[in-house]
Write a structure and sequence with these properties.
Layout lengths: L1 E11 L4 E10 L4 E6 L11 E4 L4 E4 L1 E6 L12 H10 L2 E6 L10 H11 L5 E4 L15 H6 L4 E3 L8 H13 L3 E4 L4 H4 L4 E2 L2 H6 L3 E2 L2 H19 L10 E4 L5 H12 L4 E5 L1 H5 L2 H6 L15 H13 L4 E2 L28 H10 L6 H15 L15 E11 L18 E11 L2 E4 L4
Parallel strand pairs: 1-4, 1-5, 6-7, 7-8, 9-10, 10-13, 11-12, 13-14, 14-15
Antiparallel strand pairs: 1-2, 2-3, 5-16, 16-17, 17-18
Length: 442
C-alpha cells in the first residue's frame, strides 16, 4: 500500500517549487514518485488516495520556539499534548526551550526529551540552557550538548545580564557551532513591569516595560560579536551564530539590519501575536491575562515596523513562543499574571489571515518563514520533494474559514487572545513518520 497525494499545489521554496503535481509515498514513509502537472498518479488496489484538488502540500512546518512544560509543570502542557497541538497546527517539528523544572542544562534532560519524543507524531528538538539553571552565571556544558545532537542554546525568558558571561558564551558556543538564541531584555529596566510603557500603561496604572530594554541588550550582544570577529580572538572558521527571539521593536529591527549588512551571522524571529496585536488591544480587553507576554505587545508603530520587516526580508522566521499556562495563572490581576500565550494551533491561520491575505507577504514567503528558514537556522535536515527522501508534509487549505475554540484545542492550556477569532487558512493534515494525521489525529 502507498499514499498518493493527488493534484496538489506543491510548494517548496527550498527547491524553488510552486506548481501543480502529485506525490506517491511508500508505506514506510519514503517518497516513491513525483509527478509534476495536472495528470494524476495511477493508483493500485489498496493505495490510499488523498485528493487535494489544488490545496497546498508544503514541507512540514517547524516552530523553533516552544515551551512544553515537561518535566515539572505537566499541569500546563505535556510532551504529548504539545505534540498533538503542533500536529493540529501543521507542524511536524518543534524546538523546545529549556526552562522546564528542572532546567535542561545537562545531557540528562536532553535524553529525557528524546526518549519520550520517539513515539510522538512530531519531532522534538531540544534547546539546551546557556547557563546552569538559566541563572546567567556559569555556562552549561556546550560540548556535551553538541554530542547529544543539540544545535542551539538559550536562557529564554532571562537574558544574560553579565557582559563577560555573554562574551564567554559566544566564544564557547562558536567552538561547537551552537546557535545562541537570546531573549533580549535589560532586567534593570523591566523589574516588576507588566506591559509596554506608554499611554495605555499609564491609563491602566500598570508599570511599563520600556521598549528600549530590548534594543539595549541586543546592541550589547552585537557589539560583543563584532569585537570578537574583528580582533580574531577565536578561530576565524568558528564564527558565532546569534538569533534574536520574538523581536518586537523598530529599534531592535534596525540593529539586526545593520548587523546583517556588516556580515554578522544574525537572524531573528517574530511571533504571530506581535505582528497582529498592539498594547491598545490589551487596554481594550476585558480580561487582560491573555494579552500579557514578554516582550510585551508594543505600540502600533512597532507592530507596523514588524510588518515592514516581514515584507523586506529582515525577519527570518515566524515562531509561536507557545507558552501554556493554567487558568489560575492568567485569570488574576495583571500584575500577578504569568507571561505568555499558546500559539501552535493559531500560528498558520494568523499568518495567512494577517499577512498573506492582506498582501504583506506571499504564501510562498510564509512557508519559508514557517518551515524552510527555521530548519536552516537550527541546522536541521532540509525537506526535499524528491524520490527516496522521507515524506514530511503539511497539507494546507488557504481558503478554509474557521475559528479556534475551546472544544477544538489540542493543547492542555487555553491561554490565548485568539479564541473565537475568525481566521482564513488552516492546516488540515500532516504526513510524517509514515503516518497521515488529519486535524492532529490519525
Amino acid at each position: 500500500m502507498s499514499f498518493i497525494f493527488q493534484q496538489a499545489r506543491l510548494l517548496n521554496p527550498l527547491e524553488n517549487l510552486d506548481t501543480i503535481g502529485s506525490i506517491q509515498v511508500s508505506n514506510e514513509g519514503k517518497i516513491e514518485r513525483l509527478l509534476l502537472g495536472s495528470d494524476p498518479i495511477p493508483a493500485a488496489p489498496g493505495d490510499r488516495v488523498i485528493a487535494l484538488q489544488g490545496k497546498i502540500l508544503a514541507p512540514g512546518l517547524f516552530d523553533m520556539h516552544c515551551h512544553f512544560r515537561e518535566p515539572g509543570q505537566e499541569y500546563k502542557e505535556t510532551l504529548e499534548s504539545g505534540a498533538n497541538a503542533a500536529a493540529a497546527g501543521g507542524f511536524t517539528g518543534v524546538a523546545l526551550m529549556p526552562n522546564t523544572k528542572p532546567v535542561i542544562d545537562s545531557p540528562l534532560g536532553v535524553a529525557y526529551i528524546r526518549h519520550h519524543a520517539a513515539s510522538l507524531p512530531v519531532d522534538l528538538e531540544v534547546i539546551g540552557a546557556m547557563t546552569v539553571g538559566s541563572r546567567g552565571e556559569h555556562l552549561a556544558p556546550y560540548g556535551k550538548f553538541r554530542s547529544y545532537g543539540v544545535t542551539a542554546v538559550s536562557d529564554d525568558g532571562s537574558a544574560i545580564q553579565n557582559s563577560q558571561t555573554m562574551r564567554l558564551g559566544f566564544e564557547y558556543a562558536s567552538n561547537f557551532d551552537l546557535l545562541i538564541i537570546q531573549h533580549c531584555e535589560d532586567n534593570a529596566l523591566t523589574a516588576g513591569a507588566v506591559m509596554n510603557e506608554g499611554l495605555f500603561s499609564a491609563k491602566l496604572g500598570l508599570k511599563g516595560i520600556p521598549e528600549v530594554s530590548e534594543a539595549i541588550t541586543l546592541a550589547r550582544d552585537l557589539l560583543l560579536m563584532e569585537y570578537l570577529e574583528e580582533h580574531k580572538l577565536h578561530d576565524p572558521l568558528k564564527r558565532a551564530r546569534y538569533h534574536v527571539a520574538h523581536i518586537s521593536t523598530r529599534a531592535a529591527l534596525d540593529l539586526v539590519r545593520k548587523a546583517k549588512r556588516d556580515g554578522l551571522q544574525v537572524t531573528c524571529e517574530v511571533t504571530p501575536h506581535h505582528f497582529t496585536l498592539s498594547d491598545e488591544d490589551l487596554f481594550l480587553a476585558e480580561k487582560k491575562g491573555n494579552y500579557l507576554m514578554k516582550p510585551p505587545l508594543s505600540s502600533r508603530e512597532n507592530r507596523d515596523a514588524l510588518l515592514e520587516a516581514l515584507a523586506d526580508g529582515t525577519i527570518d522566521a515566524i515562531a509561536t513562543d507557545h507558552a501554556p499556562h493554567a487558568p489560575h495563572e492568567k485569570e488574576c490581576p495583571p500584575d500577578q499574571a504569568s507571561f505568555g500565550i499558546i500559539g501552535l494551533e493559531s500560528s498558520l491561520g494568523l499568518t495567512i489571515t494577517e499577512l498573506v491575505n492582506k498582501g504583506v507577504i506571499t504564501i510562498y514567503r510564509a512557508i519559508e518563514l514557517l518551515s524552510v528558514n527555521p530548519r536552516r537556522i537550527m541546522q536541521l535536515k532540509p525537506i526535499l520533494f524528491q524520490p527516496e527522501e522521507e515524506a514530511n508534509f503539511a497539507i494546507i487549505d488557504p481558503e478554509l474559514e474557521w475559528s479556534l475554540t475551546l472544544d477544538s484545542l489540542r493543547s492542555r492550556s487555553s491561554n490565548t487572545p485568539f479564541l473565537n477569532r475568525r481566521l482564513k487558512g488552516k492546516a488540515t493534515a500532516i504526513f510524517h513518520k509514515g503516518k497521515l494525521l488529519e486535524g492532529g489525529k490519525p
